[in-house]
Design a protein that fits this description.
The chain is mainly alpha-helical and 335 residues long. 46% of the residues lie in helices and 5% in strands. It has helices spanning 3-11, 22-54, 68-78, 101-121, 173-190, 211-214, 217-224, 236-241, 260-274, 292-305, 310-325, and strands spanning 164-169, 193-195, 198-199, 230-231, 276-279. The chain crosses the membrane at residues 30-50. Belongs to the glycosyltransferase GT106 family.
Length: 335
């Protein structure tokens, strides 16, 4: 072999120096990962033991040695301050103090007492004055607030009924309440007998409650008996006239916020002809601007005739009693 050939052979890498295969690389990586995990576990265990040993004394002592700063950092990361208990809360942090509701109540309480005194002792409309609780952007400056029912509802004998009016109140509970007020007003305009309104099953609320489940039917009928006739259901002779099928009764569709003249001119003739009509849906179907006697009737329904059913009243009384008993401001007394 020539000198050049021998040198070239010597410079060649032996076969064992060649790059190992894929399996060897994978095994090495697994071994390195296992070693790192073991070291991390051992380091964490060591720091835990040192932290537990030094938690009762000085961290910079001889037991800590040179690991004092490291243990201090580890302890600050590991140990967290426990959540404060209600007993540790400052004495001034009363319930509702975050929203200052107790301060608002203190500010409004004198006006509430003043209004209650006026309402119970003085019935004359001239004595009804404005207070901080009775404000509205619809109120003209300087005009007093007066109950809309007082002195505006005549209680003469009702004339014979022109027929039966049925309505279907749709929307949420608040819209249904407004619809009931409008329905009584429309029944008065038409001199009709109002059938207890039905509530449309809303696809959003999915509440199957009927009128009697929410409001006191007997109180509703009794309160309105001198102004509008109200019955719980259609008489048998009227149902027989329409083959006991409510859908056979003509539905007088009306536009939103229709005027009183619209009902007198368009709905009343059909009512006199058939003896019964229905309006569905019935939401915001009467104009806001109506004669004062009609508006007073709306107020009578809203503030007097519509009373919650007995189960709801019992529950509400219990809730009020609990809040009064636990009140921090009044010591369990309302007045």
């Amino acid at each position: 072999m020539s000198l050049a050939g021998a040198g070239a052979a010597a410079l060649r890498k032996p076969a064992t120096w060649r790059r190992p295969g894929g399996r060897g690389v994978a095994r090495r990586r697994v071994a390195v990962a296992a070693l790192l995990l073991a070291l991390a576990y051992a380091g964490g265990l060591l720091m835990f033991l040192l932290d537990e040993r030094l938690s009762g004394g000085s961290v910079g002592g001889a037991a800590a040695g040179g690991l004092g700063p490291m243990v201090t950092v580890a302890s600050s990361v590991r140990r967290r301050r426990p959540l404060p208990s209600p007993a540790d809360a400052p004495p001034h942090a009363q319930p509702g103090s975050v929203y200052r509701s107790h301060l608002v109540f203190e500010r409004l309480l004198p006006a509430m007492r003043d209004d209650a005194t006026l309402a119970s002792s003085l019935s004359a409309s001239a004595s009804w004055r404005r207070t901080m609780l009775m404000t509205s952007h619809y109120q003209n400056s300087g005009d007093p607030w007066m109950p809309c029912v007082n002195g505006r509802l005549t209680r003469s004998e009702l004339p014979p009924s022109n027929g039966y009016l049925m309505i279907e109140a749709n929307g949420g509970l608040n819209q249904q309440r407004l619809s009931v007020c409008d329905a009584v007003a429309v029944a008065s305009l038409l001199n009709a007998t109002l059938v207890i309104p039905t509530f449309h099953l809303n696809s959003v609320w999915r509440d199957p409650s009927k009128f009697g489940d929410i409001f006191d039917e007997d109180h509703f009928i009794e309160t309105l008996k001198e102004h509008v006739r109200v019955v719980k259901k259609l008489p048998e002779d009227v149902l027989l006239r329409f083959n006991h099928n409510i859908s056979s009764i003509p539905n007088m569709r009306t536009k939103a916020y229709s005027s009183p003249n619209h009902y007198v001119q368009n709905v009343l003739p059909k009512l006199l002809e058939l003896g019964a009509v229905r309006i569905a849906p019935f939401s915001n179907r009467l104009a806001q601007s109506v004669p004062l006697n009609i508006q007073a009737l709306r107020c009578l329904v809203n503030y007097h005739a519509l009373r919650f059913a007995e189960p709801i009243r019992i529950l509400s009384d219990e809730l009020v009693g609990r809040m009064t008993k636990k009140s921090l401001l009044t010591g369990g007394k309302i007045w």
